[in-house]
Design a protein that fits this description.
Elements (H helix, E strand, L loop, with lengths): L23 H16 L6 E4 L5 E6 L36 H5 L10 E5 L3 H9 L13 E8 L13 E2 L25 E5 L6 E5 L2 E6 L14 E7 L24 E3 L4 E2 L5 E2 L6 E5 L6 E7 L6 E6 L8
Antiparallel strand pairs: 1-2, 2-3, 4-9, 4-13, 5-8, 6-7, 7-8, 10-15, 11-12, 14-15
Length: 318
C-alpha cells in the first residue's frame, strides 16, 4: 500500500561510460536518466549504509539538491518554522518514529542534512508518478479510498523542491516496522502547515519539523482549497491490485484491524485548529469491492476525529 504524501529528494554520485545497443528511443531515455543523476549529484560529507540496504548521504545543508531548482536561486534557508506545531501526543509504547524515518544510531554531522541516495530506478518510478496525486481519480492502475473536506469549508492553511532542515529524520526511508492486525500498533503523528510569515509549507513528524516546500514553488498556494486523508494503491493496468493497509475492510469499527488516521485536524483561514465534523467531509472509494473508507468524526479524547480505510484488493479493474 502507498499512503501518500510524496517527497522526492535526489542524490547520487555517478559517471558511467559504456556502450549501449538497441532501440534509439531507449538509448535516449537511458542517457537522459544518467544526465539527471549527474546533475543532482552533490558531494557527501558522510555516507550511511542503512540495514535495509538504502544509502543516505549527509549533504551540506546549503548545497542540497533542492537549491538547484530554478525558482530557488538565491533562496534564503529557513532553519525553523515561525509556529509551534502540536499534532497530538504519541504513546511511547506505540511510537515507532525513529525506526520509521530516523537514522537510528547514526547521525549526520552538524551543518549537514540526510538525503536518500537516488538510483536510476527511483527516477523511472518518479517519472511514472509525476501526475499522480491522492485526490485524483481515473488513473489507470490506481485506486483510492479517501476522505476529503468539502470545498465550501475551506480555505485551509495547514499543505518540487523540498528543503531538508532536520539532520535526524529524512524522507524516503523504507518502512520495516508496521502495525500487526489485532496487535501492537505503530503510530506516527505528522502535519503539513503553512508558515504564517514566510508562507513556506512545513512538514513535521511527531512535532519535529523536518523541512519545507518554499512558497516560491507555488503560484496558487496561498491556502489549500481541498485537504484529504486516505489510502491509495498502484499497480500495472490489467494486474491484481495489492492490499491496502492490513488488507481488511474498515467495517468492524476496530482500529487494530484496519489502517486509520486519528486526531485529524485542520487550520481555518483564521489559523484556528479544529476537527472535521462528519457533515463537512466527503468519502470516496472508486472500487468498493476492493477497498473502503469510513469517517467517524470525534470518537473521544484518545482517537479524536478518526477515519479508517483499507481492503483486500484483488481484481479491481483499471
Amino acid at each position: 500500500m502507498i499512503v501518500t504524501v510524496l517527497f522526492v529528494l535526489y542524490l547520487f554520485s555517478s559517471h558511467v561510460s559504456y556502450k549501449v545497443d538497441g532501440n534509439p528511443s531507449i538509448q535516449k531515455d537511458d542517457w537522459e536518466l544518467e544526465r539527471q543523476l549527474e546533475i543532482i549529484t552533490k558531494p557527501a560529507i558522510k555516507s550511511i549504509h542503512m540495514k535495509n540496504g538504502q544509502i543516505v548521504d549527509c549533504i551540506d545543508i546549503y548545497k542540497q539538491p533542492s537549491f538547484d531548482h530554478p525558482l530557488l536561486k538565491g533562496h534564503k534557508l529557513q532553519k525553523k518554522p515561525n509556529f509551534q506545531n502540536v499534532t497530538g501526543e504519541i504513546s511511547q509504547k506505540t511510537s515507532r518514529t525513529r525506526p520509521m524515518f530516523g537514522l537510528g544510531k547514526h547521525e549526520c554531522p552538524t551543518g549537514t542534512v540526510p538525503i536518500l541516495r537516488t538510483t536510476k530506478d527511483d527516477l523511472i518510478r518518479e517519472k511514472s508518478l509525476l501526475n499522480d496525486h491522492i485526490l485524483l481519480q481515473d488513473i489507470p492502475g490506481v485506486h483510492v479510498a479517501e476522505v476529503s473536506v468539502k470545498p465550501n469549508y475551506g480555505p485551509y492553511y495547514g499543505v518540487g523542491g523540498f528543503v531538508q532542515t532536520s539532520k535526524e529524520i529524512f524522507i524516503g526511508r523504507s518502512i520495516g516496522t508496521i502495525s500487526q492486525y489485532g496487535g501492537r500498533l505503530c503510530v506516527l503523528a505528522f502535519s503539513i502547515t503553512q508558515d504564517p510569515i514566510t508562507k513556506n509549507w512545513w512538514i513535521s513528524i511527531d512535532n519535529k519539523p523536518i523541512g519545507y516546500f518554499p512558497a516560491k514553488l507555488f503560484s496558487n498556494m496561498s491556502s489549500a482549497n481541498e485537504v484529504g486523508w486516505g489510502g491509495r494503491t498502484r499497480t500495472h493496468p490489467g494486474t491484481q491490485s495489492p492490499k491496502m493497509g492490513s488488507g481488511h475492510f474498515p467495517h468492524d469499527d476496530n482500529p487494530t484491524h484496519a489502517c486509520y488516521y486519528k486526531q485529524i485536524s485542520i487550520q481555518d483561514n483564521e489559523r484556528k485548529t479544529h476537527g472535521v465534523k462528519v457533515y463537512e467531509a466527503n468519502s470516496f472509494t472508486d472500487k468498493p469491492n476492493c477497498y473502503d473508507v469510513r469517517y467517524y468524526g470525534n470518537k473521544g479524547p484518545h482517537f479524536g476525529n478518526i477515519l479508517m480505510f483499507g481492503g483486500p484488493g484483488g481484481n479491481c479493474g483499471n
